[in-house]
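subagent[fold] <- orchestrator: predict structure for attached chain, return tokens only, no commentary.
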Amino acid sequence: MNLQPIIDKVVQKNPAEVEFHQAVKEVLESLEPVLDRHPEFVKANIVERIVEPERVLMFRVPWVDDKGNVQVNRGFRVQFNSAIGPYKGGLRFHPSVYLGIIKFLGFEQIFKNSLTTLPMGGGKGGSDFDPKGKTDGEVMRFTQSFMSELFRHVGANCDVPAGDIGVGGREIGFMFGQYKKLTNNFEGVLTGKGLDWGGSLVRTEATGYGLVYFAEQMLNDLNTNFENKIVRMSGSGNVAIYATEKCIQLGAKVDTVSDSTGYIYDPEGFNTEKLNVLKRIKEVERKRLSDYAKEVTGVEYHEGSVWKLDKPCDVALPNATQNEINGEAANLLLKNGCKLVAEGANMPSTPEAINIYLKNNIYYGPAKAANAGGVATSGLEMSQNSLRMSWTFEETDVKLHNIMKSIHKSSKDAATEYGQPMNLQMGANIAGFMKVARSMLAQGII
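subagent[fold] -> orchestrator:
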């Protein structure tokens, strides 16, 4: 079945939302052979329905800064699909946030959550608020105002947000407190909570660890492992830090991290001591990587994109933001011997970059599969909240590792079934879609 008319209609109905257009096109191009085999999905217009959010919320967020000035931001929550469970997906606080980014993230979340095997639907939210440079008091007042509207639309069995860019433990804590005050309910309405009040061990590490667990399965497909591999890493937030930690544990050499202004190149690679300095600077002091370079000897700090670094690497793990690797960067990775790309950020490779991977046998692990460890462990946190119990670090880590193995297997199996072995992009899209499509079909036209 030719799905281009549906893609064209999405573009027409959602003008200027280029990230959303890109995400829809990427998924739908994989689904044509599925619909040829399943005319029941065509008859029920499953694809036309799945690209349309069930609900879009957009609201004003007024708050007062430390100088007494009234500020106004815009808040969003897109509840995209609840066929297999409550809406689940993070909140992003960043100046770049607008409706198109939230819809792209929410659409991706449908299939990512489906792949985890856990009962979670797809959603996403956030605000154009920038927490960088704000005091704790300003962040608290903003998040309380944000939750004063959002609380009407979320709940443990309805919609369970988590963190994303700009939303960490501090922001989750303030929002949870406001929700509890407004509803008089102590429930698992948010994930990423503190360990003292309903959080899960491994949640902090989950996306980074899960990414490396997934990439490890990919390396196994290539009859190798992380030992002595050179890993090119972008980002220096939660995902990059804990992906680096797990890579070090598995014997790899991570030689870069980056932030929005530049990157660190360390020819010797990170070790535990250097990583602890990075954790302090980024997670505690909230400083820039240029400050890291002032403290650690033997490293280079460069402004600009880490993907312009012309040095050998075996594995690339992009963990910063959408479309960070373009065609030029992908060709540079190819030139430098990169054999595998696994995505820790959401949609960090442009369509041109992905085409280069696939045409040149760079084994490609798409974000909806490779970075699903975070939402998977959020799902485990939801389970623990429902059971009124908590699992040990080891128990939770084993569950995460097994989920990432399962995601890899289901993606690989679906790719093979549809005649594209080793095409994990196609396989992940198909495997994620099938569970949601069957559920939508069973539940009628709603």
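orchestrator: received. Logging for downstream: The longest strand covers residues 70-81. The CA atoms of residues 115 and 407 lie 6 Å apart.
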